Amino acid sequence: MENFKMVAKTFFGFEEILANELIRLGAQRVEQGTRMVSFYGDQGFMYKANLALRTALKVLKPIKQFKVFNETSLYNGVQSIDWTEFLSVNKSFLIDATIFSENFNHSQFVALKSKDAIVDQFKKKFDDRPNVDKDHPDLRINIHIQNEICTVSLDTSGASLHHRGYRTATNIAPINEVLAAGILILSGWTGQTNFLDPMCGSGTFLVEAAMIACNIPPNINRKEFAFEKWKDWDADLFEKVEESLLKKITDFHYDIFGYDKAPSAVAKAKDNAKNANLEEYIKIEQKNFFETEKEVQGPLHMVFNPPYGERLDIDLERFYREIGDTLKQSYPGTNSWFITGNVEALKFVGLKPSRKIKLFNGKLESRLVKYEMYEGSKRTKFQNRTDND
């Protein structure tokens, strides 16, 4: 099978970890961009990328690139593609457009002109046309205009790849699954210690942490991908790719704990862990983090998404001070990471973060911060190290 170019889209700040994921999977000619990574692979690798990438939102397959200056050049460029190769009159399609260009103001206008070009081509050839379907199209097309360059791609994924298929119940402010997986990878989580999310909500960090620890493909529970409706869909090849990934699943010898003080959140998190077939690794309890202490021996890896005050009404100063006090007093030997969209609130934690990474949670600029809680005092730790040298 021939290799072709693909583009995996991701969140700001995840480009490097997505590139590393692709290299480990066996992608060729991997190049990082902004919120995207380009790479080469064959049809089987396209299936593999959709099943196995944790930090990709979409995998696109570019089919044509041309210059655009106005609506006429856009229309002509889209119409220069032979759409019968990908689409039939009795099938449906949908166009997503993203634009970063002074020549075009509206993504909806670009989508509409591109749709006209495709429909007119079919009408001329067959006196008939495929329909637009916004919910379940047979073909998803992506139009990307950057300055004067228009790239037309087939969307191989369909719905965003954060729709893993396990999360049926969510809380008031659920974290996106791709964002959760990326945060876990940035935090250095590999499954070599016990893990705790002390404010677990609907359990997204817990499930993603278990999947990373066991090397489970993140989209193994997903209902469908866009490429399953393509003319060249190869079910046997997909099955082989799926089987090869399933053979690489490993066991996990620690525990993943989740706490939440809301009974409804605990119930949802348990449901989602069960949906992902991971309840044997995940223990969820109703607890208020501020009234807990570290229950396991040895190192503990902690990752959580505390409320920012955006959607939940809390006393931010008191809340973030309690986070710092609980970590300091009750969680020695813990690497604690959390993401917040309220950068000002971090000063109330009362601890100095050892790392601070800029990310976006939706459109909200956020910080992922790390606090290292040593066994005993930090000074004692370094004195001991010096004495032993």
From TrEMBL:
KW Protein biosynthesis (keyword) present: no
Pfam hit, one: RlmL_1st
Domain THUMP: 45-156
Record key words, sorted: Methyltransferase, RNA-binding, Transferase
Heme found in the keyword field: no
GO MF annotations in UniProt: RNA binding; rRNA (guanine-N2-)-methyltransferase activity; rRNA (guanine-N7-)-methyltransferase activity
Record InterPro entries: DNA_methylase_N6_adenine_CS, RlmKL-like_Mtase, RlmL_1st, SAM-dependent_MTases_sf, THUMP_dom
Stored PROSITE patterns: N6_MTASE, THUMP
Protein's name in the database: Class I SAM-dependent RNA methyltransferase
Source organism phylogeny: Bacteria, Pseudomonadati, Bacteroidota, Flavobacteriia, Flavobacteriales
